[in-house]
Amino acid sequence: MIYEKYIRVLYIDMTENKIRIENRADLCEYLGGVGVATKLLEENIKPELDPLHEDQPIIFAIGAASTVFPVVTKTVAMFRSPLTGELGESYAGGRMAMTLFLAGYDAVVILGKAKRPSYITISRNDVGFKDARALWGATSDEVGRIIREREPGGGKRSIIRIGPGGENMSSFASVCVDTYRHFGRLGLGAVFGSKNLKAISIVGDRSVPIKNFKDYFKVYQEIYNRVTDTEIMSKYHDVGTPINIEPLNAVGGLPTKNLRQNVFEHGESISGEAFAQKNLVRKMACTGCPVGCIHIGQLRREFDKGHEYEVISVGYDYELIFALGSFLGVKTPNDILDLIDVVEQMGLDAMSTGVVLGWATEAFMKKLITEEQTIVPLAFGNVASYKKAIEYMAYKENDFYSVLAQGADKASDVYGGKEFAMTLAKNEMAGYHTGYAAVVGAAVGARHSHLCNGGYSLDQSMKEFNKEKIVDTLFAEEKERCMLNSLVICLFARKVYDRKTILAALNSIGNNLTDEELTAIGERIYRAKLRIKKALGFDQMSVKLPKRFFETPSMSGQLDEKIAYELIGMYNKKIEEFMAAENR
Amino acid sequence: MPKVLRADGMNKCIGCFTCMLACSGVNRQNYSLSKSAIRVKTSGGLQGKFISIVCLACRDERACAEACPSGALEKRPGGGVIFKAQRCIGCRKCETACIVSAVHYDEEENKPIICKHCGVCAKFCPHECLRMEEVDNDL
């Protein structure tokens, strides 16, 4: 809690409809955000129980400087992932961090299961358990609209909710935050569903007096000016993250058609520029971020003959264009927006959805699965079939789609085709076939996300291939991001928030930390994550990499499987030493 | 020449709320959305438009000042009013008198929140939604 020497944790018991507040001084050594959430997860997780057991926790946390500095906008969620069975960690922007800050909670721990579909309301002086029976089955948009009209606090409120995918506990169901942001990855939506939790509405209407205003505002202005007046952030606002489609395609790093190709022949027609020219209608921001990277595209959809149109507004980003575009051979912005909208309404993770469908398409082509199972014929570029298949996954329409809804790794366990099920340690791949660092980075990353350690970025910046450098850089970046995510800054601003800036910001709000302490915090968090992974039975050396990564050339050329495993082995040795060093 | 705030670029708003956080911070030294004199909100959820509710800088006749029984609102040169806090008795008549609902109320302080047209919100608007305009002195 800002200016206080404790972390204020709200515990919510959905079985008993009871809450309790604890002011935890001991959690301060984890700073906030992912640090506090990791520690709370470690305390509350049940390694012996299924990820969707009602006794498993959901943890949310914000950081030591949330909302009070520009672009410090994210909330972290931690849980046991139903997709991987191990560490679940996901981030979302929107208004959630601001509302938790101004409701007065640094972290929220949700345990138990409601007897009937419910939603929770959180404010500074109350927590409500509300009937959501009539909302069960509603799409993400619908439930947002209904709660918006029912609950107070408009403008100072965040509404997070699940769609049918979460209710039916698809392993990669997402949680939608304020319409355009998500806890996308690793299946938090399914954990919501397992608790009969349809939505949470948080109202933040406190006011917190600012101490040492002059010092604080000086630092605030410096950061604000660097965010808005320099080039560091402009790409995120201008064309946005899809700016990367074209250059990655040009160098052969854009996973295409289930990574059967590394170049998409229609890359130009789905570039960021193409979206901007044809569909972009507005940009939006998370609370406290002057950048505004959220790009909204408009799709005019004919729903009947006689010039009958509906207009929908859909958020798009690089990863969605990769997963639902190039990876599925979908070649126009309109078709991609159409697919994104279905994913949104069903409440699934767009990245996993695309990659899972990529596997299904190839498995169908190779006759590992039949049309009797898929109901619709799957083929790269067949948008109508994909729209249906996404709904079938969310509703677990038949046995096949029930398996598919558990991810590509599980599906390939059952139906074969492991060599082209494009997952890394059971999490579906991100949109970068850039080289060893991307593959190895996700395989060794604590949550197997490209954002654990930014391997894809290392591939693009590394001048010369060097094994030690890859392993050392991934390791250092993983620890550094543990620290950054304890704040919780948006990683887009990681170049603005260098160590000096972070220390100036924290010091100006009375958090007098040193550079060494920031390093120690990052390491402490990483160790806690590794302890959790071990308790959940994760074995780094048993991760199998799909052959396809080594068949289709990457941006850095053909990859050698042996080298990838060697790098994983080197990394594993490094973390073994890292863990042993603590005990010495 | 006096300046007044114009919120006539709201179509461009990205909803970052920096204006509100800056107003509360600079004018009230609080991290808050509730103490800001400018309010940005959506009409119809995030898929709707952003709108701002802020003092329109009425000239000649100011309904809020007319409604004040204790002389706490004085005409501001160029438009709007100046709030004299020590004269305010917290009757909230100004709040209802403003037909665009731009007099917000601070429940903690029991005082209205009156826009000073200081321009801090415009300075921290990254998207040209808010601007300051020079106007004639109407007094």
Brief account:
The complex is a heterodimer of chains A (584) and B (139). By secondary structure, chain A is α+β, with helices and mostly antiparallel strands. Chain B has 139 residues and is of the alpha+beta class.
% residues in beta strands of chain A: 15-25%
Give the CATH level 1 class of the largest domain in chain A. Answer: Alpha Beta
Helix/sheet category of chain A? alpha+beta
Series of H and E elements of chain B: EHEEEHEEHEEHE
Low-confidence stretches of chain A: none
CATH topology description of chain B: Alpha-Beta Plaits
Spatial shape of chain A: globular
Mean pLDDT of chain B: 95
CATH topology of the largest domain in chain A: Aldehyde Ferredoxin Oxidoreductase,  A, domain 1
Strand tally of chain B is: 9
**Main interface: chain pair and counts:** A-B, 41 and 28 residues
| Oligomerization state | heterodimer
Q: In the CATH hierarchy, what is the class of chain B?
A: Alpha Beta
Strand content of chain B: 15-25%
Helix content of chain A: 40-55%
